[in-house]
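Duplicate of earlier report; Pseudouridine synthase input re-posted below.
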Amino acid sequence: MSRKTQDLHDPTGERLQKVLAHAGVASRRAAEDMIQAGRVSVDGVIVRQLGIRVDPKSAVIHVDGDRVQLDQDLITVALYKPPGVVSTMSDDQGRKTLADFVEDYPQRLVHVGRLDIDTEGLILLSNDGELVHRLTHPSYEVPKTYIARVEGSVTRGLQKVMEKGITLEDGPVHADRFIIREVARKNSIVEITLHSGRNRVVRRMMEEVGHPVMELVRMQFGNIVAGHLKPGQVRQIAGSELGALMSMVGM
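Output:
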């Protein structure tokens, strides 16, 4: 065992491969192969020996560069928010809220940002306060992708306009990517990816360029995709998918 690895070794801890298996990364045997292949690091040090023990409460473990969530009390879920639902956990007007869809989770979950009441699609909820903070902080520039049905026939030149940027009442903003999916005489379908988290930013951008939004769906948040989720459905994010999300915001 190397000197660096010895410094990481905690005789009272659990074997590294067992910790990885318990975190849902892989079976214990597959975790051993990962360790021997140099794919696992503990506190920034690559570990190749199978005998190392770590404290899962304090060790920072990465597999292939992605963080492994070791605290089993911390969970993150993806919800497909239906239209007409407010992005809060309670509502004094009696409207449906995000809390109505995560009642099976006893943890106190917090929503990561918001979708306006008319917008449907992917929204994340978590009880990991640091992850929620980073995902919503503008400095981490987490990209979000939307599909919008808009009024009118969108012209090819709009892509350049949106990616170069426009100015709204609260300042300039641009799309990281703008794709025209379908064009008809009365309406068009576009895909827009941007990292801005401003209120109703997609709707305001499309209004500004003369194509008001008729329908809006968020399909992706960071590396998390809505996939096969249907309105009202929830799934837990774990393993490498969660690790990649955490790494995206420097965790």
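The chain is about 20% helix and 30% strand.

Merging into the original ticket.
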